[in-house]
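Whiteboard transcription, Tuesday session. T.W. wrote the structure tokens on the left side:
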């Protein structure tokens, strides 16, 4: 997931210089207004993109942290449960000559 974040960040960084500054053709007031509008929209996009990138990175970090806690919890619970399974399986294995989970 982190690779996707860096790819998006690289693409946005490459687009910054071309999207923030829009040059006008001549001194036409309408073109200047449109160029200013595009420039403002580009800046808004860059801010939203930076926010989304930060959110994504925090989300990935939270998922990785949760996965670590889940794995630790699962590992801690394996030992007690295995002892219970062995206690249940022992008499049955003696009769059937194989474990229940075969």
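and on the right, the sequence the group agreed on:
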């Amino acid at each position: 997931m982190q690779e996707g974040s860096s790819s998006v960040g690289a693409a946005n960084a490459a687009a910054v210089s071309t999207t923030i500054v829009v040059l006008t053709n001549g001194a036409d007031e309408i073109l200047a207004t449109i160029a200013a509008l595009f420039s403002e929209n580009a800046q808004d996009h860059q801010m939203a993109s930076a926010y989304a990138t930060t959110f994504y990175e925090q989300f990935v970090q939270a998922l990785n942290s949760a996965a670590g806690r889940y794995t630790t919890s699962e590992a801690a619970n394996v030992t007690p449960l295995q002892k219970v399974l062995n206690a249940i399986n022992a008499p049955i294995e003696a009769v059937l000559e194989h474990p229940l989970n075969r």
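Someone added at the bottom: The mean pLDDT is 80.
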